Amino acid sequence: MIPGKDTTVEKVDSQKEKFGSFALFDIEHFLRRVLRNWYWFVLMLFIGYGISWVYSKYYAQNIYASNLSLSISNNTSSYFTPNQSINFIWGQGGNQDGVYLKKMLLSRTHNEFLVKELDLFVNYSTKGVIKSTYLDKDDSPVFLQVDRKHGQQINYPITLVPKSANTYEVVLPEDGQSTSLYSYDSEGFLNINPFERPANKTIKVGEWYTSPNLRFRLIKNYIEPKIKLSNIIVNLSTVNQSVNDIVSTIGVEFDKEINTIMIITKKGYNLNSTVNFLNMSVSQLQKRRLADKITVDKNTDVYLKDNLDKIRKKLDSSANVLNYMKTTEKLYDIKDRDEKSLTQIKDLEAKKADIESKISSLNQIKQSLEAQNFEKMISTSAAGFQDGLFSASVSELKALYLKRREMALIYKPNSEPMKEINRLIDEAKVSSNGALRNYYTGYYSEINKINQKVGDANAELATYPEKQRRYLDAERGYNMIEATYNSLLGRQNDTQMRMAANQSDISVIDPAKNVGQPPIGPNVQATKASIIGGLLILPLLFILIGELLDSKIRNIKELLNATKIPLLGVIGNNNHENMLTVLDQPKSSVSEAFRGIRANVRFLSGENGGSKVILVTSSIGGEGKTYVSINLASVLGLSDKKTILLGMDLRKPKIFGDFKIDNKYGISNYLTGEVEMSQIINKTRIPNLDVATSGPIPPNPSELLMSERNIKFIEDLKKQYDFIIIDSPPVGLVADSYELMKYSDANIYVVRHEYTEKYMLKMITEKYHNNEISHLGLVYNDYNTKQGYGYGYGYGYGYGYGYGYFDEDKNYKEPLLIRIRNKVQSIFNKK
Questions:
Q1: Judging by beta carbons within 10 Å of its beta carbon (0-12, 13-18, 19+), is residue 491 exposed, middle or buried?
Q2: Angstrom distances, CA of residue 190 to CA of 151, 178, 235, 301, 421
Q3: How confident is the model at residue 829 (pLDDT cuts 50, 70, 90)?
């Protein structure tokens, strides 16, 4: 049975619509195409590996991280160092000191102090053949000290080349000189006149180097560096840029189990730099917090002492009044005293006196805040509260006022920087004043409640005589003053105890150390995988795009599924110098393929006896229509069947050249009546094969082919020959072949591998399934046999499948994948 021919299935309309429609994407052909282009993937793999190796060795800048853990104690007295363990009377609580300390570590004020104090705006590196390596300050044999009053060009690499133990050559870039210089004194930019590139100069350690855009000197590092450097590259940056770079690389987290323990992380390109910075940062923070605590405690002690002196005078005066009333008016022994009410009033008024004392302290804090007199601020503990958020806002406000005073020397009052700093100050004021208002509201609310309770208790004492009530009032006044005095005295004792045992509330648990930590980034392995994967995707992407845009027929299975037209045979690639493959290479696989087509054509036309008219056509020229016609006719002639080959493609004659026949007279001459039939029939070297060439190109080929004379011509030939092979015009260009098919017994449609467009098959497929054409079969021509066929239709139809049977097999070498497959199969098939 002919492959693909199925006469038992009835065609319904829905099926007919699908005929001739090809899938948008052929996964099988795509995979075959990928395998055929394996060398591109291997090439990309090697290129990707090479690029990733160069990247990891010469370009990847390792990022390191070091950690420092510290503990925050709970003996803090200053709102500049707020207590983390206080639960506030208004429901506030939590790790307030930890939050404040985190803000301090990440604050501009703290890090700007470090940048200026430690010259962190000077960055050191060294450059090898390709890669630059960042250095810690201590890795450099010399330090660069800038003249802060002189303008300096920033982001301008200064190369120091060692010449001797204490001599260095200063090499500046060939270009890039800027007239906009940065002043570390005013932290602003200034402009100078254009200048030429400063020449290279050799200077000694301690000697000043001066140029229009730089002024610095070298200071010897008395710590012997561990590595010897051939060059030191120094880059200067602005204070603001340095602070921003530092803050962006600091991370602060709290221990999950103990929230008073902080873990501070610093990232950077040099591990020693991160270690040194963390230790210096925490050391400076400890000193500043201790100084803040001492200052605030001293202010608080002075404030409490002054108030105690004032209260002591009031207490003495009140005691004198009370003693006078006892001695002169004999009121020390009042009968029927309501001791319960009196005790209640005494306790309430003692609480009131304590709150009023706190309000007085709160007033002092507010006045200092409004007067910007931060150096005279007292502790919030004197006002009876500890609020980390309030303390942070006051600390921020103090830093902003200081910053504004510095900026006022540089900027005009209405400039944008000044407007921005004023806006930040207003926000900090709102935050701090809002917190104070909350405490005022709370204190006055408590006093109102106490007054109400005291009023209720006084109503019970209204029955006492006037003199006794005056004595009781004097006694209550004394008790209130005494309670205030005791409250202040207690707070003074607490303050003095803190001052006596004052120490930083920050204790380092684990300092930052260089213990050879591996880099945390970049993820070199992931980068390598991305580079290699990206390059491997490139050929895959190109193949995929090519596959989606490809409209050529490349897959036999897809062709048969789309057309449902029987396949008569597959013709391999023809490497012969002419079209006479069957005659010149009878033992080739191509010749054997034509013999298979000869057998299948009999099934296509049926065995009804008589002569057979076989028409060969295709979509367009170049698909091998004439080649198939010549070789099919040759195969039939060699099988002792009297055969004639008719060149009826009158527009493009071809047959005569391969058979070395004169095309002076042909079918076109006969159809116009110029010559007789015998004059156009030519003998060939095959006894049973004759050829009638097309003849000269006529002006009206369609009319000639459709004429009654041509029909009679075919009928006359059927009386003389067993097979008539018609090489007809392509149906994709002209309709002549469709008319000739009415008189043929079998029709062969030639499809060329990777040449025929898919859309060209739609018309012939529709006509076949609409029963407008019958006895139609496909011949797949010029198939690349090295791809393998493997669909099981007839013979293998390709080199390497005969294993010595065909002539081509002697030069055939199986592909590597096929050889590997066969080897594996032979191993598993061993018994």
A1: buried
A2: 7, 11, 19, 48, 22
A3: low
Q: For the whole prediction, is pTM greater than 0.70? A: no
**Given its phi and psi angles, is residue 660 left (phi above 0), alpha (psi -120 to 50 degrees) or beta?**
left
In degrees and rounded to multiples of 5, residue 575 shows phi and psi of -100, 5
The pLDDT score that the predictor gives to residue 177 is 92
CA distances from 580 to 189, 626, 628, 789 (A): 89, 11, 10, 24
pLDDT > 90: percent of the chain: 30
Say which DSSP state 200 is in. Answer: P
pLDDT at 68: 94
Query: How close are the terminal C-alpha atoms of the chain, in Å?
Result: 36
Contacts of residue 272, defined as CB under 8 A and 6 or more positions apart, other chains included, come to 136, 138, 139, 514
- State how beta strands 689-692 and 158-164 pair: unpaired
DSSP code at position 57: I
Nearest to 488 by CA among 738, 723, 303: 303
Alpha carbon of residue 462 to chain centroid: 83
CB-based contact 348:361 (threshold 8 Å)? no
Report the SS3 class of residue 267. Answer: strand
- Bond before 82 cis per omega within 30 degrees: no
Q: What percent of the chain has pLDDT over 70?
A: 83
Distance, in Å, from the CA atom of 35 to the CA atom of 714, rounded to the nearest integer, reads 50
What CA–CA distance (Å, rounded) separates 420 from 417? 5
Lookup result for tokens 């006892």: 326
Residue 125 CA to residue 131 CA, distance in Å, equals 10
pLDDT of residue 85: 31
Per residue in 67-125, pLDDT (tens digit) is 999 887 654 444 444 433 323 322 334 456 677 788 888 888 889 889 998 899 999 99
Residue 436's alpha-carbon distances to 314, 369, 390, 393, 731, in angstroms, are: 28, 11, 8, 11, 97
Q: Are 701 and 651 in contact (CB under 8 A)?
A: yes
CB 145 within 8 A of CB 282: no
Q: Lowest mean pLDDT: which of 264-273, 324-333, 364-373?
A: 324-333
* DSSP 8-state assignment for residue 59: I
Whole-angstrom Cα Rg for the chain? 52
Which two three-digit tokens encode residue 455? 């009023």
Q: Do 781 and 810 meet the contact criterion of CB atoms below 8 Å apart? A: no
Kindly report each contact of residues 115-120 with a partner whose C-beta sits within 8 Å and lies 24 or more positions away, as own/partner: 115/239, 115/242, 115/243, 115/246, 116/184, 116/239, 117/284, 118/280, 119/143, 119/145, 119/146, 120/242, 120/246, 120/277
Contacts of 330 (CB under 8 A, 6+ apart): none
| Strand (E) or helix (H) holding 135 | strand 132-135
Percentages (nearest 5) of helix, strand, coil residues in the chain? 50, 15, 35
Q: How sure is the predictor about 205, in pLDDT bands with cuts at 50, 70 and 90?
A: very high
Residue 491 near residue 304 (C-beta atoms within 8 A): yes
Do residues 318 and 304 lie in contact, with contact meaning Cβ atoms separated by under 8 Å?
Answer: no
Residues 723, 689: Cα–Cα separation, whole Å? 10
- Give yes or no for a contact between 710 and 744, defined as CB atoms under 8 angstroms apart: no
pLDDT in tens, 632-655: 999 999 998 999 999 998 888 888
Query: Is 608 in contact with 819 (CB distance < 8 Å)?
Result: no
3-state secondary structure at position 693: coil
Most confident of 122-131, 159-168, 499-508, 515-524: 159-168
Are 331 and 325 in contact, with CB atoms under 8 Å apart?
A: yes
